[in-house]
Specification:
Chains: A mainly alpha, B mainly alpha, C alpha/beta, D alpha/beta
GO cellular component, one term (chain C): membrane
CATH superfamily of the largest domain in chain D: P-loop containing nucleotide triphosphate hydrolases
Number of strands of chain D: 10
Distance between the termini of chain D: 41 Å
Structural class of chain B: mainly alpha
Number of domains of chain D: 3
CATH topology of the largest domain in chain D: Rossmann fold
Keywords (chain C): Membrane, Transmembrane, Transmembrane helix
Mean pLDDT of chain D: 84
Organism (chain C): Halorubrum persicum
Order of helices and strands of chain D: EEEHEEHHHHEHHHHEHEHEEHH
Strand content of chain D: 15-25%
Distance between the termini of chain B: 55 Å
Strand order of the largest sheet of chain D: 6-7-8-3-9-10
Strand order of the largest sheet of chain B: 1-2
Radius of gyration of chain D: 24 Å
Number of strands of chain B: 2
Mean pLDDT of chain B: 82
Oligomer: heterotetramer
Number of domains of chain B: 1
Largest sheet of chain B: 2 strands, antiparallel
CATH class of the largest domain in chain D: Alpha Beta
CATH architecture of the largest domain in chain D: 3-Layer(aba) Sandwich
InterPro entries (chain C): ANF_lig-bd_rcpt, BCAA_transport, Peripla_BP_I
Protein name (chain C): Receptor ligand binding region domain-containing protein
Low-confidence stretches of chain D: none
């Protein structure tokens, strides 16, 4: 029978995967003021670059992950320089449609390069280590954790902490926060908003690229739609946390991740509905806290 | 039994284009007119299609056995399949829209977008997993009364165009009326509309429900066109297609929505002829290039003509939030 | 490493056989057919293909004209969920076409025109409308998923009286379509496989199972057939758990299947989701507690190459069996290997058979039109007649006025009155990470 | 109607986080007068205005318009309440039905589950409503009802509906337009065209009154700041309210236009309209108002005639110090 604690652990692992994507999406949302629908493709691309590094070139997995981090980050810069600079004053809806176009474009490029068939990272299989086996009353507790799980959670937290330090300790990070708070004020204060946007794209892309690697490690299989398939959940996490708040997004990611897994315990509801669950939670929270959990603060 | 040859292909494309045009008009009422950022088009499209499939099954038996001409308008008060299916599709979509609207229409624009997207996905999961109702992943047959007619495809085209005409008239009349004016006020600034005594929630709900009902009608027509529907027809990508039609045609313009739907058809179906000009292109590469092209065109259009063909420049280029 | 045999691993195969570069990349279907067939502009023929054959009397009865081209449509899922099937269909059909066009049937060559179904009905109907009405094909093959196939049959092929040969649509429901004989398929209905799978599970003394089923037409159809037979055999199905393709995690489904009442878990899913599932199942230790079974959908190179043997060793299941020992299959596999540098899947065999039957039917009818093909294709596949398995043999027998019975790569393909071939199934077991066939399943009927 | 003033404000408070924006302000506005509301920046004038218009519910205190609490005015109507309750019941009922139909084919049980679900949905909705209003002090913020009741505001930064023309902006305001019911429009009710014609006529008059005829079909987004102020006033006039809350009506308006505007406001007062005006320009406010309320740091500093206010040391201190 499903062990309740195990579900929570699974949720934490899944939350960690969407965590990186959520932070990046939230930064773009807050600073650029638009929803990046191509974010799922960033994840996919990160996964496929990891694949290229790990399988095609035979590099160690974390070096491949670093490649994904750098490459997708660079792609973010490229997109910003080529495409987005023309759209600094566009309305959010224009930007949304633009990113939908970008998503279709990127996915087609991924297809052309890697084909439609699934690819596999071929990471070694591992049976989870059993921890804390036992029970109290009716509640079975007992969890199995694999080293991949631990690596995913660890890596996600390290990058999240890194992002936190970047946002609080560096000039650029502080400029980003200022711009998220108030664009015109930031401009008046002499912040080079153009550069800030580019850096935001880079950071957002790099985090998503790494998120893609984690996703590939967890799923084991890569295919062109993999990122798009979870981007809705990422959006749910971002909105739940409060748009534009990376810390809110972190909380949101874990809440959504855990809630999805734990929803299996509700009797009479098919496991397939757990994806719907993320949205129901999100809407329920928004009804009572319209600004999201972080309430528009950082 | 049917029209054939290139003409039939054209008829089929026009029918699909007409369906997209109806969807685009529905979305235009919501987005172009009222500023509701709805990304659940595919859900209402699907609800309409499934409703039509379900009711056509119910009514099929009796109405068919009478051997009546199927487009015959009722005399003795017995309803005939097609209008019933279409109207019921609209009603069911409307009811669902009310239920979805209550929690989501209070939300800020972008929250509404994601919330509606999530609900659309939930509805698709219901199509997929509630086999007792929808046939689940296997899909659902549609007892299409048109199939036995002499010119099935032509009849469907005529029906689609008639529906499109009605929908266009309703939308245009609505837009020109004080009702349309109030919706535009909400689009421009909801708080001002409130200050002027407009019940904005109620008006937004009306726009949302009417738009969704129109999408439901398009769903019923889609069911008649495909004769068999599966949940895989109603994935989020199709919502984006309708958005493309509205944005490219020009937000706020119903004529633009129709032109946008035409453009969408060219964009979606045109590249099918790509392989005629580029022999040696494999099917999968052609398919990928097609999406590459769609993405590219989309980016170019919003970059160089953000207001679309017939759009209100005001709406698309100035930040109204 | 694994990239070598990975279905789209262009790079590795390119080096070895530059001449087939485009083919391996999935390219140049039309050109290839045209080249092998004598290069009389097979692809350029698309343009005038309309008047060439759309009205059925131009390119047909007069079989003497060596230049006749018979346009056949293939609606193929080049994009969308089932995109991996598109290349299999292309490879199988191209292999058949190269043989057909080498020999020429009824004095002409078959020209395949493809269109993308995007794995959705809307696009599939548009694609087939284009093929049928714009390109004027008389015979349509494909698409992949059964839902799309039924939409196309109901909306395009049946009303237009176009012969429609389905290649991968195995849904049991298709058998009952009111198609006036125009719809047939080269793959067997899953109704048969469901029975075979139930038999295998039952024979392993597993009397209660949980099913994890991809929730589309394929999964549901097969699961229903399985469930029916499995219950008839006196067993119970604890739960049927739907699982959508393309999810990043199936732990919820696996947790639900992890049910103390069941002794086994049956997976009816595609390789893509299966790889994720089996990974998670292994991490959860499910293999320790349950016997696991699978349908044919997961018998694939991908699973063999990418899944660690320890996760799937001992897994059992069924596969619609190409008679692997048969000479026909061996020849087919060898040719396939030569052409594409990989082992064929059963799907490629179905596509191959579809086109072989089509070629023979055209020759038998002596003309190319929808009705002629629809009639002849039943005749050339029936058990009565000399068994043939190549175009050359078939042609000589037919020219001698004998009835023939085509024996295909995928089996004996005897079409019944509904246009379904009967299926024969082997049961397999995973031994050392590879699917080992264990002989045919006796469904006891 | 007793001797209750048109508007009575009684000890209203508003807090944002830890900051107290408005702290126990109270005043009254008599019918047919012009009342000025002044104070240095950050005195809480705009917040007070928002609360008067119903855009922000006060944390404490009461605002009575013609003797009725604004919260009562803004109550959802009975129809709206039953519509929400019904929807909640419908959703829960469908949920119950779906759950039941998964496990049992019995129609009776399914119907029962649906009924139970509907009841639960109804109960849950009512319950959370009661909880919200009685125990969490939920306040309604539905300013359109205030506006309909006859108290209408303008905005400090003029918020024109930019996608609408000047004429359309004016046509938007009148209350009770049958054409705003889309069914009546589609059915081509006579009342729709009649009202519309009447409104057109009135809008032409207002254009004439405000000297905006030449801009009739211009998009409001293209107007100058002063023209927008005029339009905003025109929009209010079209709605014909009893009490008009003007937020900085002449800020950014050129002196000539400003004079016209003020003259119009005085005319209107003479016709029986009541005004409450927030304005920074002291000359304007001193000339226009009969009574002036001075706010400082969220509190009411004093209230009196222009002369009284002008001579008051505390007011001068507040302005200089603030």
């Amino acid at each position: 029978m499903a062990l309740e604690l195990q579900l929570v652990v699974n949720g934490i692992v899944f939350g960690s995967i969407i965590l990186l994507a959520s932070i990046g999406l939230s930064l773009l949302y807050g600073i650029g003021d638009f929803a990046n629908f191509a974010h799922g493709e960033f994840l996919t691309l990160g996964a496929f670059i990891t694949f290229a590094g790990y399988v095609t070139f035979g590099l160690p997995i974390y070096v491949a992950g670093l490649m994904a981090f750098l490459f997708v980050g660079a792609l973010g810069v490229l997109i910003d320089r080529i495409l987005m600079t023309r759209h600094r004053d566009s309305t959010p809806i224009i930007l949304l449609i633009l990113t939908i176009g970008l998503a279709l474009f990127l996915r087609a490029v991924i297809r052309l390069q890697w084909g439609d068939n699934q690819r596999t990272l071929g990471m070694p299989l591992e049976r989870g280590t059993e921890l804390l086996q036992g029970s109290v009353g009716w509640i079975d507790y007992g969890i199995r954790i694999t080293s991949t799980d631990i690596a995913i959670v660890f890596l996600a937290l390290v990058l999240a902490t890194g992002t936190h330090l970047f946002l609080t300790r560096t000039r650029m990070g502080i400029a980003m926060r200022a711009m998220s708070d108030n664009k015109s004020l930031a401009k008046v204060a002499g912040i080079d908003t153009d550069t800030v946007m580019t850096v935001t794209w880079a950071l957002s892309g790099a985090l998503a690229g790494t998120g893609g690697m984690l996703l590939a490690m967890q799923t084991g299989v890569l295919f062109p739609r993999m990122g798009f398939n979870i981007v809705l959940v990422v959006f749910a996490a971002v909105i739940l946390g409060g748009i534009g708040s990376p810390y809110g997004a972190m909380i949101g990611a874990y809440i959504i991740g855990i809630a999805q897994e734990v929803s299996v315990m509700i009797p009479g509801i098919s496991a397939e509905y757990r994806y719907a669950f993320a949205f129901l939670i999100m809407i329920a929270v928004l009804l009572y806290k319209p600004q999201g959990l972080a309430g528009g603060r950082w | 039994m049917a029209l054939s040859g290139p003409a039939a292909f054209l008829v089929s494309m026009l029918t699909l284009g007409g369906i997209y045009a109806i969807l685009a008009i529905g979305l235009n009422i919501q987005w172009g007119q009222t500023g509701l950022f709805n990304i659940s088009v595919a859900a209402f499209w699907g609800i309409g299609a499934y409703t039509a499939a379900l009711v056509s099954k119910v009514g099929g038996e009796t109405a068919f056995s009478w051997g009546l001409p199927f487009l015959w308008v009722d005399v003795v008060g017995f309803p005939i399949p097609i209008p019933v299916a279409v109207i019921l599709a609209a009603i069911v979509s409307g009811v669902v829209a009310v239920l979805i609207g209550i929690p989501t229409l209070r939300l800020r624009t972008d929250y509404l977008a994601i919330a509606s997207l999530g609900l659309a996905e939930t509805i698709r999961l219901i199509f997929l997993n509630e086999g007792w109702l929808t046939g689940g992943g296997t899909g659902s047959t549609v007892s299409n009364p048109l199939v036995d007619l002499q010119y099935t495809n032509l009849t469907l085209l005529v029906i689609t165009l008639v529906v499109l005409g009605i929908v266009y008239w309703l939308a245009e009349t609505g837009v020109q009326s004080p009702w349309g004016r109030a919706l535009e006020a909400i689009r421009d600034d909801e708080e001002v509309a409130q200050a002027l005594g407009k019940n904005t929630f109620s008006l937004k709900m009306q726009a949302f429900v009417i738009g969704s009902m129109i999408m439901g009608v398009a769903g019923a027509l889609t069911a008649l066109r495909l004769n068999y529907i599966t949940p895989f027809e109603f994935i989020p990508e199709f919502t984006f297609y309708v958005w493309i039609a509205v944005i490219v045609g020009g937000s706020g313009s119903n004529r633009g929505a129709i032109i946008g739907a035409g453009f969408l058809m060219v964009l979606l179906e045109g590249p099918r002829f790509l392989s005629d000009f580029l022999p040696g292109l494999s099917g999968s590469v052609a398919a990928d290039l097609r999406f590459l092209l769609i993405g590219l065109v989309l980016m170019l259009v919003v970059t160089y003509r953000p207001q679309g063909f017939l759009g209100d420049k005001q709406l698309m280029t100035e930040d109204n939030t | 490493m694994m990239t070598d045999n990975d279905p789209n691993a262009d790079d590795s195969s390119m080096n070895r056989r530059p001449i087939l570069k485009t083919v391996a990349a999935g390219g140049a279907t039309a050109v290839l057919a045209g080249c092998i067939g004598g290069g009389d502009g097979g692809d350029g023929g698309n343009g005038d293909g309309n008047d060439g054959s759309s009205d059925g009397d131009d390119g047909s009865s007069d079989s003497g004209g060596g230049g006749a081209t018979y346009d056949v449509g293939l609606v193929n899922p080049y994009s969308g969920d089932l995109a991996p099937f598109a290349d299999r269909n292309d490879r199988g059909s191209d292999l058949a076409l190269s043989e057909i066009n080498n020999e020429s049937v009824a004095g002409g060559k078959i020209n395949k025109i493809t269109a993308d179904s995007e794995t959705t009905s809307n696009a599939g109907v548009s694609a087939s409308q284009k093929l049928v009405n714009q390109e004027g094909v008389d015979v349509l093959t494909g698409p992949c998923s059964s839902g799309v196939a039924v939409s196309i049959a109901e909306s395009v092929t049946i009303p237009n009286e176009i012969t429609h040969i389905m290649i991968n649509s195995t849904a049991p429901g298709i058998t009952d379509l009111e198609d006036n004989g125009y719809v047939l398929r080269s793959c067997p209905s899953d109704a048969f496989q469901g029975q075979a799978l139930a038999q295998v599970v039952s024979d392993n003394d597993i009397s209660s199972v949980s099913l994890i089923v991809v929730n589309n037409d394929y999964g549901q159809g097969l699961a229903d057939a399985f469930q029916k037979r499995y219950k008839e055999l006196g067993n119970t199905v604890e739960t049927t758990i739907p699982a959508e393709q393309g999810r990043s995690s199936y732990s919820a489904q696996l947790n639900e299947a992890d049910n103390p009442n069941s002794e086994g878990i049956v997976f009816i899913v595609y390789p893509q989701s299966f790889q994720t599932m089996i990974r998670e199942a292994y991490q959860m230790g499910i293999q320790e507690n349950y016997e696991i079974f699978g349908a044919e959908s997961m018998v694939s190179d991908e699973v063999e190459q990418n899944v660690d043997p320890v996760a799937i060793n001992g897994m059992k299941g069924t596969n619609p069996s190409p008679p692997i020992e048969s000479e026909v299959y061996q020849t087919f596999a060898e040719e396939f290997q030569n052409e594409y540098d990989r082992q064929p899947t059963v799907w490629a065999a179905y596509a191959y058979d579809a086109y072989m039957m089509l070629g023979l039917a055209i020759h038998s009818a002596g003309e190319y039109s929808s009705d002629a093909v629809a009639n002849a294709i039943y005749e050339i596949s029936r058990p009565e007649g000399t068994e043939v398995s190549s175009i050359a043999e078939g042609k000589s027998e037919l020219d001698a006025g004998n009835a023939i019975n085509y024996q295909g790569a995928s089996g004996n393909v005897n079409l019944d009155e509904n246009g379904d071939p009967s299926g024969s199934y082997q049961h397999w077991e995973v031994i050392d990470g590879t699917f080992e066939m264990q002989g045919f399943v006796d469904t006891g009927q | 109607m007793s001797d209750e003033p048109l508007l009575a404000v009684d000890g209203i408070e508003k807090h944002f986080g830890g900051i107290t924006a408005v702290d126990g302000v109270e005043f009254e506005i008599e019918e047919g007068t012009i009342v000025g509301l002044i104070g240095p920046n950050g005195a809480g004038k705009t917040t007070t205005f928002k609360m008067l218009g119903g855009f922000l519910p006060p944390d404490a205190g009461e605002i009575r318009y013609r003797g009725t609490d604004l919260q009562d005015i803004m109550q959802p109507s009975r129809a709206e309440k039953s519509y929400f309750t019904g929807s909640a019941a419908l959703v829960a009922g469908l949920g119950g039905l779906a759950l039941a139909s998964q496990s049992t084919p019995s129609t009776a049980i399914q119907a029962g589950a649906a009924a139970v679900g509907a009841g639960a949905g109804l109960g849950a909705y009512r319950g959370q409503e009661i909880l919200k209003t009685r125990h969490f002090g939920h306040k309604y913020s539905r300013p359109f009802q205030v506006s309909r009741a006859g108290m209408m505001r303008t905005f400090q930064i003029t918020r024109e509906l930019e996608g609408l023309t000047v004429f359309e902006n004016l046509l938007l305001s009148p209350k009770n337009q049958p054409g705003e019911n889309v069914l009546k429009t589609w059915m081509r009710f006579n009342s729709v065209t009649e009202t519309e014609a009447a409104n057109h006529e009135r809008a032409e008059e207002v254009l004439d009154l405000l000297d905006l005829e030449h801009l009739r079909d211009e998009y409001a987004g293209n107007l100058s700041g002063g023209q927008r102020k005029l339009l905003e006033l025109g929009r209010v006039l079209m709605a014909d309210p009893d009490l008009i809350l003007l937020d900085e009506p002449v800020a950014g308006v050129n002196p000539t236009l400003s004079k016209t505007l003020l003259a119009r406001i005085r005319d209107l007062r003479d016709q029986g309209y009541t005004f409450c005006i927030v304005e920074h320009d002291m000359d304007v406010i001193m000339n226009l108002s009969e009574r002036i309320i001075v706010m400082h740091q969220g509190q009411k500093l004093m209230e009196g005639t222009p002369e009284e206010v002008q001579g008051n040391q505390r007011v001068i201190d507040a302005y200089l110090g603030g």
